[in-house]
Every structure is written in structure tokens, then in C-alpha cells.
Known about the structure:
Elements: H1 7-18, H2 22-35, H3 43-69, E1 82-87, H4 93-100, E2 118-124, E3 127-133, H5 144-152, E4 155-161, H6 166-179, E5 182-184, H7 189-193, E6 198-200, E7 202-207, H8 212-224, E8 231-233, H9 242-253, E9 255-260, E10 273-276, H10 281-288, H11 290-295, E11 298-303, E12 306-312, E13 323-327
Parallel strand pairs: 1-3, 1-4, 4-7, 5-6, 7-8, 9-13
Antiparallel strand pairs: 2-3, 9-10, 11-12, 11-13
Bound molecules: guanosine-5'-triphosphate and magnesium ion.
Amino acid sequence: MPTNLPPEYFDAEKRYRAAQSAADKIACLEELLGTIPKHKGTDKLRAGYRRRLSKLKAAADTKKRPGRQESAYHIDKEGAGQVVVVGAPNVGKSSLVAALTNARPDVSEAPFTTWEPTPGMMSYDDLQIQLIDTPPLGRDFVEPQLLDLIRRSDLALLIVDLQTDPLGQLEDTIAFLAEHRIVPQHRAPQKAEDPGSTLVRALVVVNKNDDQESDELLELFLELLEDEWPLVAVSVRTDRNLEQLKQAVFDQLEIIRVYAKPPGKKPDLARPFVLPEGSTVDDLAGKVHKDFVQNLKAARVWGSAAFDGQLVGRDHALADGDVVELRI
Ligand SMILES: Nc1nc2c(ncn2[C@@H]2O[C@H](COP(=O)(O)OP(=O)(O)OP(=O)(O)O)[C@@H](O)[C@H]2O)c(=O)[nH]1
Ligand SMILES: [Mg+2]
């Protein structure tokens, strides 16, 4: 032990020994290190405290990590579907999410405004659908987590700006997604060539079709567009076609709403069960309660695909708007 240590060292050392929490220990160690004169005789002592300090800091960091992993890109699905809004800079992604949902992402004339995804809820009839605003797709850098968000989504809105090379923007977006092995679902045949790719439902949204004047631009764009795309032309600025867009989003999600009716009672029309298109009575039973699947004896359906009150079997396919009475 070197002899020439000042009295402050011994005070600081006492405090360090008394410290309970990791944060206190770190603070006391830093203070302690500051009191030790720097010369050859104190090298070992200082190195020892340094090691302890870095160990404590590393341990504190790993503890913090679970918090850090909750990145802005981990957005829990809410409502009837998760719809991610993607596209080139400045096409109006944030404007669209601000117009259709309760979220208020920043909008500006300058490109590259958005840095983080922002979710919001859009009402459609009796449903809530989640829309997520995202940072622009760019050649230089794209957060890998954005790609995962697109892969996990139920639908991607590919936004282009009618007034700024919409064809080029759409081609770039598709090429970009393809580079990362994300394939729009209606191009499914391509998937056979690459089994590692992810199919994602996609809807092209042509924004900034503000008025009749820009309809000419739209016609030109549609003529040049080679592939068939599910597509809606809108204007966030003038509200043009925004209702049609909501309808198209619902259609593309390929979901149905079914209302459960307890025997002898009225159906609960306020809370639809949301199921993928093609779902059966069995699928609904599983969603209502796991006991229902095993014990289901009969079901009656009121709706478009059945005559009113028709008795149906477990594998009867349900349609949007059906009212179903499950009997156990
Ligand atoms: N004329 C016209 N301008 C629009 C429309 N929608 C959005 N804009 C404008 O386009 C600009 C960009 O809008 P943003 O919503 O910030 O675009 P963004 O795609 O989120 O942009 P980044 O976050 O930078 O990728 C803003 O000046 C908007 O006011 C529209 O329908 N018509
Ligand atoms: Mg934005």
C-alpha cells in the first residue's frame, strides 16, 4: 500500500464501502479515483479501482438493455390490422397518417422529416385499423428494423407523389423491397423463385391528386404503369378519395367482421370479431372461447351467405357482417 495517500482518499474510501446501489458505488469509485495522486507508487491501486469501476458499469449496462430493446420499431398490433405506410421522401406519408388517424407526426415541405415510426388508429365503420407512419426509404441507409416492420405488417401502403415522378418512385420502392426479399403478394409467382422471401399485401396510393387538373397526370401514370396494382389515387390536401382509400385498406386486409349472438339474446353489434376471410364457424368458436371449440353443438347464422337463422356445421365459411349464434 503506498503511503502518501491524502486524507480525502480515506474519506472517499469509507463512502465507497458504505455505498449500497450500483449507481452509488460507481459515483463513489469515480470520486475515489479522483483523490489518488497519479504516480508510479499508486499505479496498481488505481488500476484495481478502474477494473472494479468498469465491471460495475458493464453490469449496469446489461441491466438497462431490456429497456433499450424496446425500440420505436417494435409496435404492438392493435385493432383489426396493422398497415405500414412506406415510400420515398416527401410523398405525404406523415400527412396521410395525420389525416386518417389520431396520431400527429411532423409534416414539412423538406424531405427526410420523419426519423421514427409513429402509429395511429384509423376508424373504418365499426373497426379501428392501425396505420404506421415511417421514415422514408432511401438508397443510402434504411433501418433494418423498418424492413421487419414491413414484413410483419398486414398491409403495406406504397405511397407515391403524383406531382414528382410517381412511376420512378413506385419502381424504386418495389426494387428496394425486392432487394430485401419482400414481395408484394399479388406478385406471388416470384416467390417460387426465392423461397426465402416474404409476401406482403400491398396497395399503391397515389397522393397529391389534388383536383381535376392533376387527373391528366394520373391518366398518364396509369397508362405507363405496366403491372396491375391494387391502387387508389387520393389527395391528403383536398381530402379527395380518402373515404375510398379507407374502403380499399379494409378490402386489402382480407378480413371479415362477425357478430356473436348468445342464444335467446340480441347480438353484440358494438364489438365485431375480426377474422381472416374464409374463416369458419370453428374459427369463430376458437376466438370466442377455447371451450367453445370442443363443446360446440350447433351454430345458426344470419347474413348474406346463409338464409336467416340457418343451422350450419362447424366448417361453414362465414361472410363479412354475419351474425352467429354458437350453442354448446
Ligand atoms: N399538393 C399536395 N401536397 C401534399 C399532399 N399531401 C402532402 N403534401 C405536402 O407534401 C409535403 C411532404 O409531406 P409529408 O407528409 O411530410 O411527407 P412524408 O412522406 O412524410 O415525408 P418524409 O417524412 O420526409 O419522408 C408537405 O409539404 C405536405 O404539405 C397532397 O395531397 N397534395
Ligand atoms: Mg414523414
